[in-house]
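>> received
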Amino acid sequence: MGAGVSQPALALVAGRISNVLIVYPSNSTEFRREAYENVYIFLGLGGASLIVSFFQFYCFQTVCNRIIAKLRYHYVRSLIRQNAGWFDKNQSGTLTSILNENIEKIQEGIGDKIGVVCRGFTMFFAAIIISFIYEWRLSLMMLGLAPLSFLLVAFQGMKMEKSTIKEFSNIAKAGSVAEESIMGVRTVQAFNGQIEMVNRYKNELTKGKKYSIITSFWSGMMEGFFFFLMYIFLGGGILYGAYLIKVGALTSPGNIFIVIMSQLLGAYFVGLISPPLMGIFKARIAAAVIYETIDRVPEIDVYSNIGENSDNPNGMVEFKDVHFQYPNRQDAKVLNGINLTIYPGQTVALVGHSGCGKSTTAGLLTRLYNIESGSVKIDGVNINEINIHSLRKIIGIVQQEPSLFNFTIAENIRISCPEITQERMIEICKMANAHDFIETLPKGYDTLIGDGGVQLSGGQKQRIAIARTLARDPKILILDEATSALDAQSESVVQSALDNAAKGRSTIVIAHRLSTIQNADKIVVFEKGHIVEEGTHQELVKLGGHYANLVKAQQLLPENDNKKNQNKMRKKFDENLGFGRKEFVRAARASNSFRNSQKRLSKKCVDVFKSDDDIKFYKSILIEDNNQYGNYSIATIYKNGKEEYKWMIAGFICALFRGLELPACGLTFTYVFQSFSMGHDEMMRTCLNALWIFIGIGVGSWIFQCIGVR
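>> returned
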């Protein structure tokens, strides 16, 4: 506000100086006294304006940075809070694009732009007060510019809002495509899908570009029209002021300049707040998307304190007449009245064709989704009555594709149990057959493993995932095809770790490779959402039903054991896939919604957290490659838009002509200033000519602004 008041005050002093130059002879004492006095005031106001402008920027930017930090925190916290069904409906790339793009828009809109808008409105009202004090009639005439300015700003905001929403939507979709392409780059390359993914990204960008151009068009149109009106009122104000002097209603020409300069400064800064207001409008739209997620309380709330705590469970699991269908697949029922009991310490294997409901059954135990009907109980208590945090604390999951983060090995394990001691960590890593290979790493348990554990083999990642699961000492263990993506050697080591992990726990094993579950206490066969068979391996083989057919298909009967040949074929197939083989095999084997939901849930916000090593790495790149980056300039960017050269040239020409506006106004003011020392008729004729000049400048400003923005 202080910066806003200082500008009209400067206009007041400038008007007083103009009056001194017109009224007093240059060699008189009054001239020197008044001139020096006003110059000192002018310098004082300039210094004060510098100080308040600095604090305006500093304070708003400081508050902005703190708000953005909190907003990022709350958005990520809310993302992790959402249930699996919500993630099924929202693409991970869109969510991370929102985290980056939308919050950046909010940061641009709530920083110094708020201060600019506040200063503009303060300047406007201060200018009105000053101008009415010095000449109310001329001020009343000039006041018409203010409501027109506000109407233009409101109309501009209305026109921009719809196009901005659509622009953000398409940018988010483009970000989703880019993230999917980058994270799955090996798969894209393996299938020669580069052109397809780039074209998809380009299509979304093209849609967003169209709405961005519409937004820019309305911004340029309204800003140019404002300057057109401003120049009309400027010329009209000068002519009316000259008329007041002619009829004797006004005796001091300096008051004309005070009123006109004050009103124009006020209106001018109202016009200048158009770009900041555009940023604020975009920030408001972006914030609506962010807060929609932040304010959403999921049906299954991991932060809720409601429900019983299950501190000492036995591990008894019961499914009674459970029916279920995924929220985003209402037309396909996944489970149709299953009944299953798992006793404490028992190992139960779930088998069947892909999509039959095995992983869904295990997923319902952790309440990633709510069931449609029936009940799921642990130790006789419905899981809906158990606190969700407590429920998931007693259940451990080892998936086919382990989700490791770009932390150290110790930090990855502590995600499951933050309070675990180093001694206990070593103990569980030995149980998971992971301790020996960890000790061979450069920094042992403090070794960074890279994003997704890319610096480790598949078997090593799986053993760390097993150790992470064991860290919380779960009473119920879910093994979701934990060895299906491994080669024979890694499978043997990991299977041994899984056998150790299953001791003393109720264990649910989901497997396609039946050789891994022959020793299970009970095997449950699923078919199209129904349980069709139950029993041990020997019992089901003798039965000659669905399970026996699965066994025959995999040639696992004692007389036809060809597992070694299968492993050779698998290895040969993997090698032929070359660079993208791992991603292809994993993608082909991970086919059900439960597993995909868990992957997305664990990977959503890893990129938000960066270690000190990451920061040092980025700094080293900037230092080492400074010379290389220095070879590029802004011209390099424009070279990518050769097809837009005609618009670039038009924009540069328009910018040049707009740059001539203020010099033209200055020359016209000199022309007018001299006329106040002439006779009344000559003064009126000069001011009328000045009006036409200002109208011409206004028309040119409007045209050049529209073309320049385009």
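>> The first strand starts at residue 317 and ends at 324.
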